[in-house]
Amino acid sequence: MPFLCSLPTLRRTLLSGLLMLFAAGLIGGIFVPSVPAADKLTIYSGRGERLIKPVLDAFTTNTGIQIELLSSGSTELVNRLKAEGDRTSADLLITNDAGTLELARAAGLLHPLNMREIERAIPAQFRAPDNAWVGLSGRFWIVVYNRTMVQPDQVKSLFDLADPKWKDKIAIPNSGSEYLQAGVSVIRATHGDEKTKQFLQGLKANADAQVYQKSSQIVDAVAKGQVALGIVNHYYVYRYLITQPDAPIAVLMPDQQEGGMGAIMNVAGVGVVKSTKHLDSAKLLVEFLVAQAGQ
To answer: How many structural domains is the chain composed of?
Structure first.
């Protein structure tokens, strides 16, 4: 369940989110547990451990609650929750894709949350209507380009990448990529099957053998001039520039033109498993994750 966002909309969303955090007293504050807590929570997580574990360790330090983390693919974890039913040991589900969380909600696997902290901190478009899942971080589908090979005005839309002039000049993720699948779902919902099919066929023809398992590999290929353009989540570019500040790469936010569909945005998020026996502690973790301490 990714989202579309133009730059003006993004600015308004970020500003309103910042104001809500300030109003809630979460910016610059210290997280203070508000209820007695259980000794341990079990989390099924589709996020990379190196990304989520430091935050969970901070939660343990703040609350004394130990975390048992089971990591796997988001879809596999939802299927596991379905198979386990009320017998599951999981208290929370964390995924890197809002669509997976929405599938879990639709299957009745998640517990709706009536929490003021969530509604203050997270704009409504980045959480379920009943707060059964809550977005924690967002990422944009962008075009990374080599500044010595491409002029920024040459690409206005993702659909431009299907133009034959980019033959053998584009790097793309493999078809198993969750962010590719999510992005294609948005294009399909916005433009229909036929236009999406034409786009994918053109993209595949242009990329040919330049199909990568990792987004970091795409950014590296663009930086080295092996290809001129690539499709990645935005943060891979900035992560690369931290270690290689002189790399000749830059970011294009596509489809910002009048009438354009806007950039594709997806969120990683969390939901409390409906059958949890530790609801208060699970809500405490959600409260921590949406607070400044968890961000």
So the answer is: 2
Task: Decide: 110 and 273 in contact? Cβ < 8 Å.
Answer: yes
- The residue range of the domain holding 261 is 139-266
State the average pLDDT for the chain: 87
Q: Which of 239, 236, 237 is nearest to 249 (CA)?
A: 237
What's phi and psi for 79, nearest 5 deg? -65, -35
Q: Which residues pair with 158 in a beta bridge?
A: none
> Which range has the worst mean pLDDT, 127-141, 168-182, 187-201?
168-182
CA distance 1 to 3: 7
**Count of CB atoms within 10 A of residue 137's CB?**
15
pTM for this model (two decimals):
0.75
Domain CATH code at residue 240: 3.40.190.10
Check residues 32 and 134 and name the one with the higher pLDDT.
Answer: 134
DSSP the chain: --EEE-HHHHHHHHHHHHHHHHHTT-TT------S---SEEEEEE-S-HHHHHHHHHHHHHHH--EEEEEE--HHHHHHHHHHHGGG----EEEES-HHHHHHHHHTT-B-----HHHHHHS-GGGB-TTSSEEEEEEEEEEEEEETTT--GGG--SGGGGGSGGGTT-EEEE-TT-HHHHHHHHHHHHHH-HHHHHHHHHHHHHHHTT-EES-HHHHHHHHHTTS-SEEEEETHHHHHHHHH-TT-SEEEE--S-STT---EEEEEEEEEEBTT-S-HHHHHHHHHHHHSGGG-
pLDDT at 69: 96
pLDDT value at position 14? 39
Same domain, 131 and 144: no
152: its two tokens: 């920024």
